[in-house]
Design brief:
Largest sheet: 3 strands, mixed
Shape: globular
Strand order of the largest sheet: 1-2-3
Strand content: 5-15%
Number of helices: 22
Distance between the termini: 83 Å
Oligomer: single chain
Radius of gyration: 30 Å
Helix content: 55-70%
């Protein structure tokens, strides 16, 4: 039996930002999701036949990955490629991971060079090696893909305006006018010598103020800031923020101009680094996404869980080594969760603030001493406050139930909390800076690393203090 198209009220996509529009779009998405689930291809295509492409893109982004992948496969080729071309390359790759190579080739040809590179970089290596020979200038694609994934060369825009220093201002202006339909936004005019090496730059106002007969090299600004193509993207972002640059030139080791990192790429780097740090904070691999398969979830999360398990096992061993202390005063066991939670929270707070400071270029090894002193002072005060609350609770509890030496127990808990909070905060502030100095991602210090290490040292400190003051 062939699938029929029922005559029902047409489903539409509302574009306003009102709450009513959001509810309307959610209902539309749910209805189309249900059609896709039942395989009603004709009904879906009939429903969105008159939709603008922008609304189809919004629908694709609103659907669950499984449904969105099926919808993209149903769309007519031209519309489907148009939708994929407008999506983030990583999402586009997920939606077409089962697509034939012909579709990948057509999409790569349709995208601009930079977006196509990101699409190809996310493809499985075997498919990428089959697709590249079918693209124009395959050697150029291979060379561009050879850059490190998180380097300036990988993020730069290869379409840029460069003029030679022996040219004339009038010729430059005339060339800009001829190519005005190709220029979306003019961020900078870079100047090169005859060998293509970057020597300076011009601002738009320089073109307006100089006579047409003026030689470019005579009025160019030589204080141009450039980065090597292999520089880490986070370092590029930090440099741009420190120098307040809108555009950063990218060169090779010989100084030849290769491209530039524009405001759009800088914003993308900022989002990517924030996402990566957020995932590391949660003890998740930076490659993780909400479209991971069960196998990918295991591969990208299990190592972090194993790391946490090792830390927890060490903490359990520390507790077991104080078995005699627990046998003499079982009440001490009730403070273990308090100590571990306080230590973990204090460490994560300090490390998170430090990682943010490092990302913004506001922290360095030179400032480690003053930073540690500030963290230590704040941690001691926080520890005193938490210790006072716990001590008060111990004394109140002693009025309701028999507790041996409640004053000494309260003093033990307060002293341990002060020491543990101070140690955890100091470690949380110091470790990210040290890792950054060693060339490692400081965000690795957060999450599981800080939590598990502070659990171990927190429990050890508590029992040492208990042996000293209470037992």
């Amino acid at each position: 039996m062939s699938e029929s198209v029922e005559e029902t009220a047409p489903l539409t996509w509302a574009r306003s930002a009102s709450a009513g529009s959001a509810e309307h779009n959610a209902a539309t998405t749910a209805a189309i999701d249900e059609m896709i689930r039942h395989g009603a291809r004709k009904r879906v295509l009939h429903t969105i036949a008159d939709w603008p492409a922008a609304d189809v893109i919004r629908l694709v982004m609103a659907l669950r990955t499984k449904r969105a992948k099926k919808l993209v496969g149903w769309l007519p080729e031209e519309l489907g490629l148009g939708v994929l071309a407008e999506l983030d390359p990583r999402l586009g790759r997920v939606l077409m991971e089962d697509a034939a190579e012909d579709k990948v080739v057509k999409l790569a040809r349709r995208l601009n060079h930079d977006r196509a590179l990101r699409l190809l970089a996310d493809l499985p290596e075997a498919m990428r090696n089959r697709v590249i020979p079918r693209l124009p200038e395959p050697e150029r694609w291979r060379a561009d893909l050879s850059y490190l994934a998180e380097s300036a060369g990988a993020m730069m825009r290869r379409g840029f305006l460069a003029i030679q220093e022996d040219g004339l201002i009038g010729d430059v202006i005339e060339d800009l006018r001829r190519r005005s339909d190709q220029i979306e936004k003019l961020d900078a005019l870079y100047i090169t010598d005859t060998a293509g090496r970057l020597t300076g730059y011009l601002r738009i106002r320089d073109l307006m103020l100089c006579t047409p007969e003026t030689r470019v090299g005579d009025v160019m600004r030589a204080d141009v800031v450039s980065v090597d193509k292999d520089m880490d993207r986070e370092a590029v972002l930090r440099l741009a923020e420190e120098r307040r640059l809108r555009v950063v030139a990218v060169t090779d080791r010989e100084g030849q101009l290769l491209g530039c990192v524009t405001p759009a790429e800088l914003a993308e780097i900022s989002r990517a680094e924030a996402r990566e740090d957020l995932l590391l904070l949660g003890g998740v691999s930076p490659e993780s996404s909400d479209s991971d398969t069960p196998f990918q979830i295991v591969m990208r999360r299990l190592p972090w869980l194993m790391g946490g398990l090792v830390g927890a096992s060490v903490a359990a061993s520390v507790i077991a080594s104080f078995e005699d202390a627990l046998a003499r005063a079982a009440v001490l066991a009730s403070f273990i969760p308090v100590i571990m939670a306080t230590a973990g929270n204090a460490g994560i707070q300090a490390s998170t603030v430090t990682v943010q400071a490092l990302t913004g270029g506001d922290a360095s090894v030179r400032e480690l001493g003053p930073r540690l002193l500030r963290e230590l002072a704040g941690a001691v005060m926080n520890g005193l406050a938490v210790g006072a609350v716990v001590s008060a609770l111990v004394l109140v509890a002693s009025l309701l139930m028999p507790i041996e030496a409640p004053l000494r127990l309260a003093l033990t808990a307060a002293t341990a909390l002060v020491i543990v909070t101070a140690l955890a905060s100091t470690a949380g502030a110091a470790v990210p800076v040290i890792l950054d100095r060693l060339g490692l991602d400081p965000a690795v210090a957060t999450g599981i690393f800080i939590t598990t290490s502070n659990d171990v040292f927190g429990v050890l400190t508590f029992f040492l203090v208990a042996n000293w003051l209470y037992l």
